[in-house]
Amino acid sequence: MSGTTLEQFSYDNKIVKYFGVATIAWGIVGMLVGILAATQLFLPEANLGNPYTTFGRIRPLHTNAVIFAFVGNAIFAGIYYSMPRLLKTPMWSKALSWFHFWGWQLIILLAAITLPLGLTSSKEYAELEWPIDILIAVVWVAFGANMIGALIKRREKHMYVAIWFYLASFITVAVLHIFNSLALPVSFFKSYSAYAGVQDALVQWWYGHNAVAFFLTTPFLGLMYYYLPKAANRPVYSYKLSIIHFWSLIFLYIWAGPHHLLYTALPEWAQILGVVFSVMLIAPSWGGMVNGLLTLRGAWDKVRVDPVLKFMVVAVTAYGMATFEGPLLSLKNVNAIAHYTDWIVAHVHIGGLGWNGFFTFAMLYWLWPKMWKTNLYSTKLATTHFWMGTIGIIFYALPMYVAALTQSLMWKEFSDAGRLVYPNFLETVVQIVPMYMLRAFGGVLYLSGVFLMVYNMFKTASQGTFVPEEADEAPALVPHKEEKGEFWHRAWERKPIFFTVLATIAILIGGAIEIIPTILVKSNVPTISSVEPYTPLELQGRDLYISHGCVGCHSQMIRPFRSETERYGEYSKAGEFVYDRPFLWGSKRTGPDLHRVGGKYPDSWHYHHMVDPRSMSPGSLMPPYPWLATNMMSHNDVPAKIRTLQKLGVPYAEGYDQHANADLDAQADQIVANLQSAGVEVLPQSEIVALIAYLQRLGTDIKKTTASNP
Predict the structure, then answer these.
(1) Residue 70 DSSP label
(2) What average pLDDT does the segment 164-179 reach?
(3) pLDDT tens by residue, 368-396
(4) What Pfam families does its record include (predicted)?
(5) Count of CB atoms within 10 A of residue 420's CB?
(6) 282, 324 in Cβ contact below 8 A?
(7) What is the DSSP letter of 67?
């Protein structure tokens, strides 16, 4: 417009470069740890003979590194590049940008240190202890403040669709993280969840499902709406479809968490809500996929030659596959087959490797030449990376589907005489070992492609010149009054604070309706009078069990199926978990369920099973834990644990913390005597004594009505 004064400004490419490099570096670390974990499932000796690299401890390290380090840094790189250009303004504060970068890397480093040491809250995707949780909240709020500050001083009147998804992701992750992480500290690296049992399970999977939704999905949909049209040089297929996609997705997603807890002790009404909203999610999820793929109309000839578009097409297709599979798995008849099997592992990795991984690669391949003002060093290498990654995903996922089918059929098969055909859980494990080998090979192939990308990007940067500050100009935003007849959503897009408030309301409704009644209405968790708090030694053993990540392989939830009650015993009741902080129902059975293991075997069996699992269970894939017999356990923190649990409502007697250790010693002495009678010599302070105490307690609070199979 003539007479309009253009303002000069620049975009900060340096912060994008740093987040991009961090994405690749942490991605390699996370995937290497994942391959080590995958290898341990068919070669237990790969735990390297120490407690810090056993499967139970490195599995959460792998998930945290891939989700928050690899994918997280990719999200931030993508947002710090796209958002200023969409708003025609730099980010609000460079200082906040760099605080965000270094703060996030510190969080990842602390996770890499604490998780192998066994300092964990045990909550899926939220294992980090309370001081790190606080740091996450501070850094995340700094990131959000930087975004909202940029929105307020923007030069572009309307907010483009990508920014809607960025805002919703920021708000929802903040809400999820804070509420799920509420805990009472015992010490600097030990706390107990504010929720127990059934309530803890619901809050955790409200968080866990929506961490996938609002950390692994909605930010990447925002990135898709920016980078896919840019790479294809085509406009978004349908802006109206993006409006429907956005609002329906963020409203529906938040309700779906309970589908992770079907056939458990969760109230039936909450399970039904989870199923209904999960099925409804197909529509908005596929709306986003269709909008992405149809954006390529007229550009499919480019897909044949452009590796960036190749990665994007497979990424969006993998998103569509994963978001069809999720609702499918939420159907109760399908869930009855799939839950606790490797189907869940395959499902997660279709989304993780295909959607998040491939879109990250596409974005980085597109960004690097732009920021270094050059061309990609080798299209052929990038295409090779694409095919290695694609074949790697196939080698990863297909064996897991075969393993899942094998597991489910063998677990549930009965003979004509009405007995389990495979009563020993290990009979299933032995059958799927070849599938685990193929899965690990797929991971190696996928990671090998990443190394090709590193070389390609290094050579791309070497041949170009990095532009740390990219200059631009635009007129200042003129205050704009609402026009008569203006499309309602256009009016919302001019009001970032109002828009953010509406998005917050949309995501709070579902969570509030599911969680508040479960916590406040006592009838949701019927109590059982025989259920008592853990003894001090059992409490120590439970914390040790959590520290070693045993929940990564063993569930503690017997579902009301004949096949499970025949194998394990009486199905689990909600009232049995009222003192479990955190709950330990698990999400995968690499080993058998343990909820009724108490009293099933003598103390000496548990001792030998931990020191050398194959001596008790031939063919077991469980690594040996010989250090449990020699490591001494300090019980000085028991009084503090008792006091903390009392504050959370656990009915220990007043002043019990003063003589809790006396009860602990008496129970430890009894276990030591039992072991001595079986020819095993251990000290009462050894870790294995506490662990045996906990295992022998499991499931003994109610009378068993179905005998467990040996």
Answers:
(1) I
(2) 96
(3) 999 999 999 999 999 999 999 999 999 99
(4) COX1, FixO
(5) 18
(6) yes
(7) I
